[in-house]
Amino acid sequence: MSNFITDEDVEKALDYLRDSAAATAKAKAERIYVEEYRKSLKAILMKEHPEESGIVQEREAYADERYLAHLNAIRIAVEEEEKLKFLREGARAKIEAFQTLSANYRSMKL
Asked: What angle do CA 43, 47, 52 make, to 5 degrees?
């Protein structure tokens, strides 16, 4: 069969899917954790201004360097998760294309 996706390519894609599962799960867990911790961090920072109104507490929390650094951590976690997700989707697409090409080739031989 003459196509651009070899058996070796499919094996590599399958290996990648297997080998990247743990890293992908860890990246998703990290993203969820940092997104949820953002709420806790905001509350912690707001508590540092007990004499202020809720609106001022919120403003101070959002302007705090620790909150801004945490937003950067969220950005990094989302980027890592999305990168792994797209790489896995690419591997799946390669396998699906190989399956389609193989089926087409088999039907042509009949």
From this structure: 120
